[in-house]
Amino acid sequence: MISVSHTLVYYNHAVNGCYFNIHTPKTKAGERQIPMLENVKEAFQQEKAYQEYNNMKCKVTVDGYTDFIFINRFGNVQHQGTLNKALRRIIRDCNDMQLSKGKKNPVLLPKFSCHSLRHTFTTRLVEAGVNIKVIQELCGHSSSDVTLDIYTTVTKELKQREFGNFEEKMKQQKKEWEQTLDIDHETENEGE
After folding, report:
1. CB contact at 8 A, 123 and 152
2. Are 62 and 88 contacting, i.e. CB atoms less than 8 angstroms apart?
3. In angstroms, how far is CA 73 from the centroid of its own chain?
4. For a Cys staple, 78 with which of 16, 70, 105, 151, CB 3.0–4.6 Å?
5. Residue 191 reports pLDDT greater than 70
6. What is the DSSP string of 133-150?
7. Mean pLDDT, the chain, integer
8. pTM for the full predicted model
């Protein structure tokens, strides 16, 4: 389980300079337990092995907290802006590679940030049929309306699948209804 009980906040003040602080989540719903998927656990283990191999150790303490998982090569807390720059480079390089192939309509990656991955994860949970109340709790939202209105983008495929499920259910009900009518009709004929 991943326990979310604090947030790491970055400040960039003209007077006080740049620094991090530890805060509690914005709402009580923000404090939560998230089940850890196996591939997430493996990613944490790989990060730990990478840091050990490269002799990287956390060298910073923020409001009494240390031993952060995501650190840079200097042992400082990893900054979200640095990660977003890395994502932009990856997107650029992937798109350049696709464009260099000379295909008529290449599939290109859109611009996105670390926070966009939260939206994507939430949308994939919805597409997988995870209960909206579970998703609400995982995201730390105080209301499922927030989850549905802000963090999910229902895809065309999901709409088609759900409508297909509805159509299949309607066909099944029609078939059952017709069978019931046939049975009633046979009963009437037997009585004559």
Report:
1. yes
2. no
3. 27
4. 70
5. no
6. HHHHHHHT-S-HHHHHHH
7. 88
8. 0.68
Helix (H, G, I), strand (E, B) or coil at 63: coil
- 129 or 137, which is more confident: 137
Amino acid identity at 191: G
Provide the terminal-to-terminal Cα distance of the chain, rounded to the nearest Å: 69
∠ CA 113-118-122, nearest 5°, is 140
Distance in angstroms (rounded) separating the CA atoms of residues 55 and 99: 38
Let me know how long the chain is.
192
CB atoms < 10 A from the CB of 2, how many? 13
Instruction: Copy the structure tokens of residue 69.
Output: 């998982």
* SS3 state at 21: strand
The residue-averaged pLDDT of 72-100 equals: 94
Helices (H), the chain: 38-53, 80-100, 114-127, 132-139, 144-150, 156-191
